[in-house]
Amino acid sequence: MAPDLRARAEALGQTLPPLLAEAEMLAATVMLGEHGRRRAGLGDEFWQYRSAHAGDSARMIDWRRSARSDAHFVREREWQAAQSVTLWVDPSKSMAFSGDKSRAPKADRAKLLALALAVLLLRGGERVGLAGLAQPRAGRAQLLRLAARLAGKDASGEYGAPETEGMVSHGRAVFLSDFLGDLSTVETALARAADRGGKGALIQILDPAEEEFPFDGRTIFESMGGTMRHETQQAGELRARYLARLAERKDRLAGLARAVGWHFTTHHTGQPAQSALLWAYAALKGGR
User: What is the pLDDT of residues 112-154, one digit of tens each?
Assistant: First the structure.
């Protein structure tokens, strides 16, 4: 399953116009100089020397480099956190829903998008990880790790709660879920990410049936985990109320994201996966 998921994700990633990645790199080069996305900070890799200025402590001075000049120099390191992206893919039972046998469940679409996004980011030199499962790392080997983790057994909970474990300070994150559970868990996760200076995006993934509510007459509604069940003789009369509540939920999610500087979108499994991938890639670019 893991190789198949990886192959599908890579195929999706390859459909993005190469110009998009090139334009992002070019924009970063223009803004930050020849070092592209690199920034001064707390990373491990050497970036550049700069002249010392007021406020720099004596321990920050690189005395060996300074000895070759009349000025004092500080050795700056790359801010690796700014290049780290943590993905959370909702593993709950709710994500197993599909309103039509011809469509894959929401979980499949979420995993495909997450891995395709990882392909693009890793190729761009980013570090990518899975919340609670894999720390952000770079390189081809990390893609194999992510594919294996995503192909693993899903959790047993009815609805998922976003995780921020593994998200580094000032890093970025993407949460992929139907977000049909308690929104207080989303609010808590976003607050934790914001406290760490993190930016990112929420991608709500729904089945077309959840967007349109095409039910009428006698209908039995049951949650994927079997913990909730409702039977009605006139499902059509519930449509307006259902759609209104769904719209309220989307507005609430958008508001939560906006409050911490994140992005939000809704994508349904009847749409091309490329549209959501393009949106997510652009959202992360804007969150730098």
Answer: 888 888 887 887 788 999 998 888 988 878 877 888 788 776 6
Phi, psi dihedrals of residue 217, rounded to the nearest 5°: 70, -155
Helix axes 106-123, 140-150, angle to 10 degrees: 170
Question: Considering all CA atoms of the chain, what is the largest pairwise distance in Å, rounded to the nearest integer?
Answer: 87
Cβ atoms of 198 and 167 within 8 Å: the answer is yes
171 neighbors 86 (Cβ within 8 angstroms): yes
Element at 194 (helix H, strand E): helix 183-195
* Global model pTM greater than 0.85: no
* E-assigned strand segments in the chain: 40-51, 73-78, 84-89, 127-130, 134-137, 172-177, 199-206, 219-222, 229-232, 263-268
Q: Which of 268, 280, 213 is nearest to 245 (CA)?
A: 213
* Angle, CA 218 vertex, CA 216 and CA 222 arms, to 5°: 95
What type of residue is 21?
A
Secondary structure class of 239 (helix, strand, coil): helix
